[in-house]
Structures are given as C-alpha cells and as structure tokens.
Amino acid sequence: MTSITSDTTAPAFAYRGLVTRRVFILALLACLLILSVAVDVSLGPARYSVADVLRTLVSPTDADVQMRVVVWDIRMPMAMLAVTVGASLSLAGAQMQTILANPLASPFTLGLSAAASFGAALAMVLGVALFPAAISLMVPINAFLMAMAAALLIFGLSTLRGVTVETIILLGIALVFSFNAALALLQYFASEQALSAVVFWTMGSLTKATWGKVAVTAVVLALCVPLFARRAWALTAIRLGEARAAAMGVPVRRLRLEALFLVSLLAAVPVSFVGTIGFIGIVGPHVARLLLGEDQRFFLPGAMLAGALILSATSVLSKALLPGAVLPIGIITALVGVPFFAALILTKGRKAW
Amino acid sequence: MVTLQLENLGARYGRHEVLSKATTPPIPGGSLTALVGANAAGKSTLFRRIAGQMRGAGTVRLSGAAADDLRYMPQDTGMNAALTVYESIILALKQGGGGWRLSASELTAVNDVLARLGITALAERQLPELSGGQRQVVSIAQTLVTQPRVILMDEPTSALDLYRQYEVLEALQSYAAESGAVMILALHDLNQVMRCSTTTIALGEGSILGTGPTLEILTPAMIRRLYGINSRVERCSRGCAMMIVDGPAESKRVAV
Q: In this structure, what are the phi and psi dihedrals at residue B10, rounded to the nearest 5 degrees?
C-alpha cells in the first residue's frame, strides 16, 4: 500500500518538471530575441562595427550625429517594429486558431491582409481616403479601416445563430478571393507609378518604420495581452472542444466573440503599417505549440516570442542576403519560412496540430 | 445527502419540442442512477437541460448541493490539443476561478483523481496520442476532479473494454458512496445497468416514462416500449438479474 501512495505523488512531481522546462524554453526564446534584435540593429547598408553600434545604443549623446540618426531613428524603429509586429501577428494567429479550432486560421487566411491591401491600394491608386481628416496617413488608415471592416463582418456574421466555426473559415477564404479580385481590378486601372507602390506595399516591408508606429503597435499589444491572460484557462479549455469547454462552465460563445474582437485589432493595426506579412500568423503559433504545448500560460507568451523572433530573424536575413540592399520582408518570410516550417512539422510527427 | 428532482422539464430545438413534462421523484445520491432510452430519445438533451445549457420549461430542484456543484460530461469529442493528460485535468480544476498559480492542494487533487481512476501512468502522455478508451477515462477524470455533488455522464463507458468498464464503474460507485453525490449515467448496456445502478430513469416518447428501483423499471414491457425488443429478465445461477434478448417486437417502434 505504501508503494502505491508514494507512486501517486509522482505525476505532480513530473508536472513541476514540465513547468520548469517550459519556463526555461521561454527564457531561451527571449534571449534569442534580444540577440536577434542586436544583430538586426548592427546590420545595414551603412557599415558600422557591432561595437560602435552598441556604444551608440548605450550612450547616444557621445556618438557622432550621423551614426546616432542611423542607429536610433532608422535601424532601431525597424528592429523594434519587427518585434511588435511579429508578436502581434503571431498572437492574433494563435488565438484565431484557438477559438476557431482550426490550424489554418490566421490574419492572412481570414482575409484581413487582403482587405488591408485593398484599402491601401484605394489610397495609392485612386487617392480615396476612407477617413478624410488625415490625408497624410491615408494609406495605413485605409488599410486599417478595411481590415477592421473585414474582421467586423466576420465578427458580425459569427454572432448569427447557427454559424459554425467552419462557416467562419469558409467566409474568410471567400473574403480573401473577393478582396484579391478587387485589388487586381484596381491594379489594372492603376498608373505605372501607383502600380509599383501597390506591389511594393503588398510585399510587406519594415523599411517605413517610425517610433510612432512602434508605439501604436506596442500599445495595442499591451492592451490585448492582459485581456487574453485573464482568460487563459478558458481559452485553453476551448481546445478540448466546444461541448467539453461548455460543460466545464466556459461561456464559449461570449469568449469566442471577445477573442475575435481583440484578434481583429491585433491583426489590423500591424498589417496597416507593414503590409502583407502572411506567414508569421501561422508559423509563430505552430512553433510555440510544438515547443510549449497549448496551456495558454506558456502558449500565449510563447507565440508572441516565437513570432517576434521569426520576424526579427527574417529582418536580419533580408539585409544579409544581398549586401547593401534590403529585400521586402514579406518575401523572405515565405521563402525561408515555408521549408523551415515543413521540416518542423514533418520531423516532429506529433498528432496535435 | 444530495437529491435531484425534476418537475415538468421541457426542452426544444427551435420549434421542435424534444422533451416535455419530464418529471421524477427525488433521485437520491450515494449510488449510481442509470438513464436509459433509445438513440435520439433525448438523453443528451435532458442532461444539457438539467445542466442549464438549454433553456426550457420546468424546474430542477437540488437539495444539498448548489447549481455550480453540478458537472455534465458530454460524449467524447476529439481532443487534439497539445496538452498532457495532467494539464487537461488541471484545466478542468481551474475553470472555477483562481489565477495562473497552482496550489499544492490543486496538484494533490489531480494526483488523487488519476489514482482513483487508475490512470496515473498516463499523466505525462499527450492527449492526441491516447486511444479512444483512454480519452474517455481522462474525460471522467476531468469531470471528477472538481469534486462535483451532482454528475451527469453521457455514455461514460462506450469506448472501454470489459475490464476498464468494470474498473471505471467501480470507481464511480465508490465516488458516489463516499461523497453522497447524485450520479446519473446514460447507458446502453441494460445488463450493465442492472448490475451497477440502484435507480433507473427510462426516457422515451419525448418524456420520462418511469423512475425507480432498476429492476422495477426495466421490465420486459418497458424494454419493449423503449427499444421495440422482446426480452426476458431472469435470474442467473448466482441470483443476479439478467436481460436476455429474444428479438424485435412485432409492432416495431416508430423511428424517431
């Protein structure tokens, strides 16, 4: 009998080990992210040594003016925007996958990116400002408003009776095709100059980063994360299936609506600043899921760190691949991300998506 | 001691009334109660109505327990989340509230329920790796870990082999006896019902046809009425009641 009693404490012991391992993985991801940001800042068309860049970062007042401007006003905003945008898109993807119970859900597959591209193109091709009060910001504001409109359409339809998770996914895919068709129509009528602007925008780029954009994306993240964190147990329970979560007392319908609203905001803001960076919203969450499982206490920070790290590392690659040039980051995420992702899924061979 | 009583309970999907005037005497806790009825007779609907997941007419009277002491275990749905068995049980425990931290007593509660159901060895396994039967026992653990006083389980043994059925029903019986909880199980195997449950609720024709001691309810006449099957209930050589199926009744039951 004693052997049985001592045996039954083993699971809790093993679980504590699991938690320690996960905290360690999170810490490791954070360290890698800091490293990646440091490399990101030290790379660029102007060749400065890593030591010089670090010195400028630590004490900007002592550095020469040109260097201070390059490091603090050009490279740092880009590096930090990669972090906030990567974290936002990945978190948005993670929670979309959670509440829609679908591994393919992401800001990209639900049509938010396509809607944003269409909104941006409206401004660039036709000069239409959806919010005429701020003409100078009409491209990002148009993109944001269209993305929110698409999100709210999905959001609104999902409140209707009898609308299932599958319906929402199909609707998102329909939105992707509709907005792409509308975008193609705009491109057909566009001037050459406007056309190249649209094409560049839809490739996704961090090069127009400013501290203002970093601040806006950071504030949106800071608002959304605590709201998700408070619902961590309920969000994890939804992954056991709607019926089971409801049986555990989770208000599934309400939680899904709340999360969908937060996710819309979380996806629409970064997309309106950087254009189409499609892959982060799917890869970030899947990397976090493989490394940390789906307990939201680890999955939530994990998805954010993974997304930020992937986009930051991609930013490094986009500068390193062609010396002296910065390739559009949206292209790199797909080119490098897809094989990496395929390898990860196929070698791990887990049954959980 | 906990008791549960239903008074004129009704439930509808849209305009389609699936349950009406379901009434029972007070159902005592402390032992197992079986809910029997044909496919689509409304067993899950009745459970969901009692659990407050569906609205409808009538009242559910609980004595000795509060509404949030009640847990309903739906039939097995796919569990493809990247969670270990241990994590999935913690999850059930944490839905009642509490922050991100886990207390020692919460960890003990999970250990205890694993041991009670004999699945301690599964604690570190990932949910998607489990077999159907193992998942079913894990769902039962998720239900019991909050120590509910009223438990409604939808076919808790449908995926289990003979030995595990026996083991799990034994564990449920001992839980009911120790806690005095009302425990209603929707079951299809009438011989199993006769062996393990003291009370039986018969559900058919859109309402409750009878509630009482199992052998008084499960008569050949009631079995014919519920399932359209001719049968005998006889005593085996050791004195246990057993149902023997003879074949379909001439007047087949109307398809639902």
A: -130, 160
Q: What are residue A194's DSSP bridge partners?
A: none
Asked if A244's CB is within 8 angstroms of B77's CB, the reply is: yes
> How far, CA to CA in Å, does B137 sit from each of A188, A237, A278, B83?
60, 17, 40, 16
In tens, the pLDDT along A41-89 reads: 988 877 788 788 888 888 888 888 888 888 888 899 999 999 999 999 9
Instruction: Say how many CB pairs under 8 Å bridge A and B.
Output: 113
How far lies B26's CA from each of A175, B6, B29, in Å?
54, 8, 10
Instruction: Give yes or no for a contact between A314 and A327, defined as CB atoms under 8 angstroms apart.
Output: no
Question: Is B53 near chain A, with CB under 8 Å?
Answer: yes
Please tell me which residue, A4 or A231, carries the higher pLDDT value.
A231
Does pTM top 0.90 for this prediction?
Answer: no
Q: Is there a contact between B6 and B60 (Cβ–Cβ < 8 Å)?
A: yes
**Whose CA is closest to B86, among B135, B126, B39?**
B126
**B229 with B217: CB under 8 angstroms?**
no
Residue type, B12: R
Interatomic CA distance for residues B198 and A128, integer angstroms: 75
Helix %, strand %, coil % for chain A, to 5? 80, 0, 20
Q: ipTM score here? A: 0.86
* Chain B positions in Cβ-Cβ contact with residue A249 (cut-off 8 Å): 68, 95-96
SS3 state at A313: helix
How far off is chain A from B207, nearest CA to CA, in Å? 23
Say if the Cβ atoms of B81 and A232 lie within 8 Å.
Answer: no
The pairing of beta strand B32-36 with beta strand B182-186: parallel
For residue B9, give the nearest of B226, B213, B208 by alpha carbon.
B208
The enclosing H or E element of B46 equals helix B43-50
In the predicted model, is pLDDT for residue A324 greater than 80?
Answer: no
How many whole angstroms separate alpha carbon A237 and alpha carbon B94?
10
What are the percentages of helix, strand and coil residues in chain B, rounded to 5?
A: 35, 30, 35
Task: State residue A294 phi and psi, 5-degree precision.
Answer: -110, 10
Whether B126 and A250 lie within 8 Å, measured CB to CB: no
* Residues paired with B185 in a beta bridge: B34, B153
Quick one: closest CA in A to B67, which residue? A249
What's the pLDDT score for residue B89?
94
Quick one: tokens of A188?
């057909």
Cα B40 to its chain centre, rounded Å, is 16
Residue with tokens 């800001």: A107
pLDDT, tens digit, 9 for 90 and up, residues B166-177: 999 999 999 999
